[in-house]
């Protein structure tokens, strides 16, 4: 079995799935990326980023915009972040290959690929063939499979996709698992243990359950603004203080129960990040609707989570 990332580069701990900064007019705003990285490192204690993913609205960006963004994230992350993983999944294989080649050029620490979702692969074999065609253009770049069936509508179990992936894609380094199916997640952990691949969880409101099953870390949108609290949850878990870890997890769940009543979506999430961080990341891009103010949600956040 091949485990591409050297042991000191194994992706673990918290990874922020970054929002894409836009100007008020809806153009990419590269000027916010430096301050954004400083905020994550200094205020949240988050040292890894996953860029141009779901939270980053990658599917609403052009290939050129994704390249500009990835380049700036990598440039500004130098010496401040441990790893920058660039999501290069697209509907078009050619676009994905172009983004993967570019990610290597800008020295990204890894690439991730989602299953295409317009023409949906219906078997693990079809998903793997697509992943292989992207990974093969940059065989020396650590490769992560990004599993998010609720968004892609590709309901092939991740564990089936992982079966034999290391033989097909020697750069395979792990899976970013954004699904509530904890049985499938556990099976991915179990498959990955012998080779030390990273298995990262992506449903922030139940990350503690994934840690119990052996997650190496977590990738998510909320680690942008509550990374310091989830770092605490992880250290309580690692210290065997389950009660303390649960307290933090339950607060996250309370926040989301409240947020869902207010119509929580990516637009609300981004606006919450703007308010909590003080950064100006602008509105989302259509079809995600912008959301003027989420003061009640920010207040709820502050009432649940006193400053770190
Ligand atoms: C569907 C979705 O956007 N899921 C988020 C979660 O972090 C999610 O926002 C959070 O669990 C709140 O529901 C991540 O899994 C997505 C992600 O990591 C990404 O932006 O690529």
Q: Which bin fits the share of residues in helices?
A: 40-55%
In percent terms, what proportion of residues is strand? 5-15%
The chain-level structural class is alpha/beta
What does the largest sheet look like? 8 strands, parallel, barrel
Main sheet: which strands, in order across? 1-2-3-4-5-6-7-8
Q: Which shape, going by the Cα principal axes?
A: globular
| CATH architecture classification | Alpha-Beta Barrel
First and last CA, distance = 41 Å
Bound molecules: the ligand CC(=O)N[C@@H]([C@@H](O)[C@H](O)[C@H](O)CO)[C@@H](O)CC(=O)C(=O)O
SS elements, strand count: 8
CATH class: Alpha Beta
What is the CA-based Rg, rounded?
18 Å
**CATH-defined fold name:** TIM Barrel
Average pLDDT works out at 96
Helix-strand topology string: EHEHEHEHEHHHEHEHEHHHH
Domain count: the total is 1
Q: List segments where confidence is low: pLDDT < 50 over at least 5 consecutive residues.
A: none
Q: At the fourth CATH level, what is the homologous superfamily?
A: Aldolase class I
Structure characterization notes:
- It is a single chain.
- The protein is an alpha/beta fold and 308 residues long.
- The protein has one domain (13-240): Alpha-Beta Barrel (TIM Barrel).
- The protein is built from 13 helices and eight strands.
- Strands 1-2-3-4-5-6-7-8 form an eight-stranded parallel β-barrel, surrounded by five helices.
- Strand 1 (13-17), helix 1 (33-44) and strand 2 form a beta-alpha-beta unit.
- The chain starts with 12 loop residues before the first strand and ends with a helix.
- It binds the ligand CC(=O)N[C@@H]([C@@H](O)[C@H](O)[C@H](O)CO)[C@@H](O)CC(=O)C(=O)O.
- It is found in: Cytoplasm.
- Its EC number is 4.1.3.3.
- Pathway: Amino-sugar metabolism; N-acetylneuraminate degradation.
- It catalyses: aceneuramate = aldehydo-N-acetyl-D-mannosamine + pyruvate.
């Amino acid at each position: 079995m091949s485990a591409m990332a050297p042991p000191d580069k194994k992706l673990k701990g918290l990874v922020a799935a970054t929002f894409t900064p836009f100007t008020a007019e809806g153009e990419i705003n590269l000027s916010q990326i430096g301050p954004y990285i400083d905020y994550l490192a200094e205020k949240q204690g988050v040292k890894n980023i996953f860029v141009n993913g779901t939270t980053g609205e990658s599917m609403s960006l052009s290939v050129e915009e994704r390249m500009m963004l990835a380049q700036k994230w990598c440039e500004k992350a130098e010496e401040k972040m441990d790893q920058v993983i660039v999501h290069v999944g697209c509907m078009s294989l050619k676009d994905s290959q172009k983004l993967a080649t570019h990610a290597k050029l800008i020295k990204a620490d890894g690439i991730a690929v989602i299953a295409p979702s317009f023409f949906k692969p219906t078997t693990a074999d079809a998903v793997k063939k697509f992943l292989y065609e992207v990974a093969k253009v940059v065989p020396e770049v650590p490769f992560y499979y990004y599993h998010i069936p609720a968004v892609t509508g590709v309901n092939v179990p991740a564990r089936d996709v992982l079966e034999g992936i290391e033989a097909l894609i020697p750069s395979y380094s792990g899976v970013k698992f954004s699904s509530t199916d904890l049985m499938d997640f556990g099976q991915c952990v179990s498959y990955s243990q012998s080779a030390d691949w990273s298995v990262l969880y992506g449903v922030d409101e139940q990350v503690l359950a994934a840690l119990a099953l052996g997650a190496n870390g977590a990738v998510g949108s909320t680690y942008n603004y509550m990374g310091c609290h989830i770092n605490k949850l992880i250290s309580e878990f690692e210290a065997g203080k389950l009660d303390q870890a649960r307290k933090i997890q339950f607060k996250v769940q309370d926040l989301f129960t409240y947020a869902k009543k207010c119509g929580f979506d990516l637009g609300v999430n981004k606006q919450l990040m703007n308010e909590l961080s003080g950064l100006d990341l602008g509105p989302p891009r259509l079809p995600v609707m912008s959301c003027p103010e989420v003061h009640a949600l920010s207040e709820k956040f502050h009432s649940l989570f006193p400053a770190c």
